[in-house]
Amino acid sequence: SKLTNLGHLEMTWRSRVHFHPLLVRILHKSRLRYYGKPEKKVDMPYQAYFEVADGSGMMSMVLWNSLCPEWYHSMKVGTVLLLAKYAIKTSYPFKTHPTPGDSQMKRFATIEISLNVRDPPTEISIIPEEMVKPEWGLPEVKYRFITRSELDDLPHNYSCDVIGLVTFVGRAERARKREHSEDFWLYRWAHAIDGTSDQPFILELFATSQPDVFERIHPMTYLVCTQMRVIQGLSENPSRTVYLTTSNESQIFITGWHKGQPYTKDAKVKNFIQWTKSQSEADQIKKTVIGGYYPFPRPPDSFVKY
């Protein structure tokens, strides 16, 4: 059928009501958001953002309400979609934006694709990867993997991806979203090593929309975290307090979930796998810890410094 592209949509959307189908690849995926309120009568008040791209650039796509339970888990990073009967809206100004792996990619920020169950009823098709043709010109998913030896030199709030061997995972803890609020964030601390430094990655992992993965992070698993943000210098000794925290678009993968993920082709991921082959499992197991309370950043050694 006759296709359009994202760049053409941005130029012509105001003058049209119906749009030609779109062929796009998902580059980023946000956590699922629940926006239900007692006074609002919406059957399934869910919403999820995706960043999708074709040869012309990248744009946000929003999945609404009952389409979320139906499609959210099938729409993975790297998935190719054929979209028909979608709506175009002006962008919501306060949403978070992931940092693209390809800094040259054009971002269309004024509008977003809206997928609804009606008005109009969107038609979504997932194209299997083996049927995707090179002439479609869809961009590959690109990452910003860093090693532990590079971490200390990165600026505060820098966005990156990491891979490591888990040596510590803490218990799940809760933090109030706002003071006096009844809503909580669920998170846990983890350490992961990649062989490039004596220090581990310190990871603050908030529960994303992947409960099956979040609950199964164990020592000795290979952990990949994407779209993490660097948090620098919380105390007088900044080298000890650099850590990484999840963002709205973070995805977490552990051993058993890696097969077929686009990052398996990344050079730094391949280097990490080579390093793990040179390690003795028995030696690493002796250094692993699970559970317990993990105060971070650590308090000073003496009351005088405190």
- Terminal Cα span: 68 Å
Taking the sheet with the most strands, its summary is: 8 strands, mixed
Number of distinct beta strands: 16
Structural class: mainly beta
Q: Please, what is the CATH homologous superfamily of the largest domain? A: Nucleic acid-binding proteins
Mean pLDDT: 91
Strand content is 25-35%
| Whole-angstrom Rg | 21 Å
pLDDT < 50 stretches: none
CATH architecture term of the largest domain: Beta Barrel
From the spread of the alpha carbons, the general shape counts as globular
Helix content: 10-25%
Please provide the ordered H/E string of secondary-structure elements.
HEEEEHEEEEHEEEEHEEEHHE
- Per CATH, the class of the largest domain reads Mainly Beta
Number of self-contained structural domains: 2
Helical run tally: 6
CATH topology of the largest domain: OB fold (Dihydrolipoamide Acetyltransferase, E2P)
Organism: Hylia prasina (green hylia)
Protein name: RADX protein
GO molecular function: single-stranded DNA binding
